[in-house]
# Entry
Amino acid sequence: MSINAVMKDGKKGIPVERGEKILVVRVGHGGDLVMITPALRALLAAFPAAEIHLLAGCDGRRILGDFDQRLTRVWSFHRRFPGRLLLQRRLDRQIRAEHYARIYVFESKPFYRQWLRGAAPAVFALAAGTIGHFCDLCLDLVQRSVAEPIDRSWVSLPVSPTGLARARALLDRAGLLGASRLVGLHPTFSGTSLPFFRDRQGVRHRMWPPAHFARLAVLLRQEARRAGTTLAVVIDALPQERSYAEAIVRLSGGEIDLLAEAPDFQRYKGLLQCLDALVTPNTGPMHIAAAVGTPLVALFSRWRAAECGPYMDPVRYRVLAAEAAAEPRRGLAAIQPEAAAEAVWSLLQTTRAAAGGDPPPAPAEPQT
# Structure
């Protein structure tokens, strides 16, 4: 069995025979990997006989190790000097020994395109400077490489029954299973715990102030009590983030429940799926939450949601951008907790109504 393909220049491509392999390249953090899942799904559907391998960063196995049974190998790579030199040399030999039928480079950096030139009969790579949502760019690249229309889907990650059971057990231990609504807050990003974040000025575009998160929790809980419903607000923090999260809990006057157990990615996906909404800046967990179907309120500054925002049904998320606020130079701090609270209630109303359940009560009109 062979599956015909078309190269970007329109010429007949290299067929993928049963048992042959395709290499996909995406070296980045968790959110970067989640954003290639629509393209991975398209490749798996377009080449039902092929085995997929992945060249990724250190998060590759954690994020995509259980993505699909035909994704059978994950190579780990980093660009940190000088270790990169020996690692690249070793990986180059191993990659070329695999005799891949095709390579898809979901990177616009010339480095990867130059490195893997000639490592397969057909190598497809993103072009530098192309504008659009990253998920769409990857899907478009796959579409240009095949003759038939591809399957286009939202981001997705599997949630195992075991992971979901662990999440529910965690919520049960915290006394939260009885809440009618469960809203999560994610106040950190991958550089929070680093002693020297390389983009100090960029922090204001990645982190919403702790006082804003605390105020949001107070507003949500107050409104729930006024409406006679139960709503819990939770933060699931990594051990190294616990002190930062505890400060937010204190600022909220105890209106936030802090979960801080040992890292467990399967449990974490299950917990995200249990949430009725997650409020988060533009982070990896934003994309992971989208991939498990969690409704989102996403906070953006400097980056554009049209290029790297949640790639999911638009009904299931709201984007708040600092550029639309009164003082955009403040970064994420320009987005007020009141605006976030309004977005959360709007999202809860929409998603509950779409699921066929009773919508949560609308927030009270502001008094004048």
Summary: Residues 210-227 form the longest helix (18 residues). The chain has 14 helices and 13 strands. Residues 1-14, 193-198, 357-368 have pLDDT under 50 and may be disordered. The first strand starts at residue 2 and ends at 3.
